[in-house]
């Protein structure tokens, strides 16, 4: 009798498990989404195979070519070591902590928790964990912005509250989300993270934001509803820069959406302001006057060295391979940004992958309902089905 019951249990478990897998890997849903998003993975004809003056990531810094996959392993380490050496090494990542729940409320088919954890060794942050109803392991997305309330639809700006509520919208689609932001620093006009202090930061602030996102990945990966192999990250503008550096520098993010951050250096665009002291131009106060680089107001800190030595952010894009990413481009990331993205495509081709890099375009900096739908479908395709 016990053997019969055990057999029935095993058959029942296998049936339920196969049903769950079938639901997650529904080929019809996957194919329908791919039909919608596949056009975003091909550059317009005018930009195909155009590489501009960007130094190829498939050449070592001493000029030797990268010819094989094993060469890329070494080259990837070289790029990462070079950039971390210039930007400053991260402090040890906080792998073992668990987030503390401060309170919770019920919203539209999900539970919203206000949570707290250390995102640097000496600084706690508060954010929001949104968990949809239903059992089983789910894909998850971290959202990053000036304030976590923006992503849950409670932001102060009507414009961003309407079009940057990424966490709320993704949770409604079945994702666990963790909304983060630099609330106090943004209110003080310093925006970023400075480790160990703003007086003597040893890591470029934008890299330290990436470190904080890596710590957030670890704490989110311990949430029982989350599948740690399916965690992505998204942000717009300031958050887009943050999401880009986090996903490029920390390879546990399965995929990413960078919404109009300015994906390469461009001193003609005031919003592509990597030279600011809260990004890659840190220097002790008093800070340079905010605004574009001029002879009277030059860049300071690391940024001038990066440009003088011929470095650009396409080197970091290459670190994503073969993980997929979407550039949700607006006023700062126009179709011609495919030129630097083509370099990342060549890396993926070397590794035997295609359809890993996508870009959409809109006219303005702020996301639109259409661009957001494209981003959400991207996450659904790669985190739910692939």
Overall pLDDT score:
93
CA-based gyration radius = 21 Å
CATH class: Alpha Beta
Tally of helical segments: 13
The spatial strand order of the largest sheet comes to 1-2-3-5-4-6-7-8-9
CATH homologous superfamily heading: Alpha/Beta hydrolase fold, catalytic domain
* Whole-number total of structural domains: 1
CATH-scheme architecture:
3-Layer(aba) Sandwich
CATH topology: Rossmann fold
Task: Report on the architecture of this protein.
The protein is α/β, with parallel strands linked by helices. The chain has one domain (27-385): Alpha/Beta hydrolase fold, catalytic domain (Rossmann fold, 3-Layer(aba) Sandwich). Helices cover 38% and strands 18% of the residues. The chain has 13 helices and nine strands. It has helices at 2-24, 27-37, 69-87, 148-151, 158-163, 166-172, 183-187, 205-221, 238-249, 302-308, 314-318, 338-351, 369-385, and strands spanning 100-106, 110-120, 123-132, 138-145, 176-181, 226-236, 255-259, 325-329, 357-361. A nine-stranded mixed sheet has the order 1-2-3-5-4-6-7-8-9, sandwiched between helices. A hairpin with a 3-residue loop joins strand 1 and strand 2 (110-120). Helix 2 packs antiparallel against helix 13. The longest helix is centred in the first third of the chain and has 23 residues, at 2-24. The radius of gyration is 21 Å and the shape is globular. The two termini are 42 Å apart. The relative contact order is 0.14.
């Amino acid at each position: 009798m016990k053997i019969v019951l055990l057999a029935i249990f095993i058959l029942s478990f296998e049936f339920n498990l196969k049903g769950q897998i079938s639901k997650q890997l529904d080929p019809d849903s996957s194919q329908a989404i791919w039909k919608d998003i596949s056009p975003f993975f091909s550059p317009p004809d005018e930009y195909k195979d155009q590489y501009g003056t960007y130094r190829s990531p498939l050449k070592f810094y001493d000029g030797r070519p990268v010819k094989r996959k094993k060469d890329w392993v070494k080259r990837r380490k070289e790029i990462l070591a070079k950039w971390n050496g210039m930007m400053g090494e991260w402090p040890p990542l906080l792998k073992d902590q668990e987030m503390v729940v401060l309170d919770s409320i019920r919203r539209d088919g999900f539970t919203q928790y206000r949570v707290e954890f250390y995102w640097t060794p000496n600084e706690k942050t508060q954010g929001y964990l949104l968990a949809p109803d239903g059992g089983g392991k789910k894909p998850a997305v971290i959202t990053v912005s000036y304030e976590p309330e923006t992503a849950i639809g409670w932001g102060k700006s009507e414009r961003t509250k309407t079009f940057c509520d990424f966490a709320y919208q993704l949770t409604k689609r079945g994702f666990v989300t963790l909304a983060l932001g630099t609330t106090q620093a943004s209110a003080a006009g310093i925006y970023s993270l400075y480790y160990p202090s703003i007086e003597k930061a040893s890591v470029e602030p934008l890299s330290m934001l990436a470190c904080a996102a890596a710590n957030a990945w670890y704490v989110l990966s311990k949430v029982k509803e989350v599948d740690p192999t399916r965690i992505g990250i998204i942000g717009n503008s300031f958050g887009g820069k943050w999401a880009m550096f986090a996903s490029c520098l920390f390879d546990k993010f399965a995929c990413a959406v960078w919404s109009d951050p300015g994906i390469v250096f461009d001193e003609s665009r005031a919003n592509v302001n990597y030279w600011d002291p809260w990004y890659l131009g840190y220097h002790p106060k008093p800070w340079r006057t905010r605004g574009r680089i001029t002879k009277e107001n030059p860049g300071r800190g690391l940024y001038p060295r990066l440009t003088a030595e011929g470095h650009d952010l396409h080197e970091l894009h290459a670190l994503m391979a073969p993980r997929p990413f979407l550039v949700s481009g607006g006023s700062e990331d126009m179709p011609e940004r495919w030129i630097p993205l083509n370099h990342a495509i060549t890396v993926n081709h070397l590794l035997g992958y295609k359809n890993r890099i996508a870009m959409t375009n809109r006219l303005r900096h702020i996301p639109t309902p259409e661009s957001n739908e494209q981003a959400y479908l991207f996450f659904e395709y790669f985190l739910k089905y692939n």
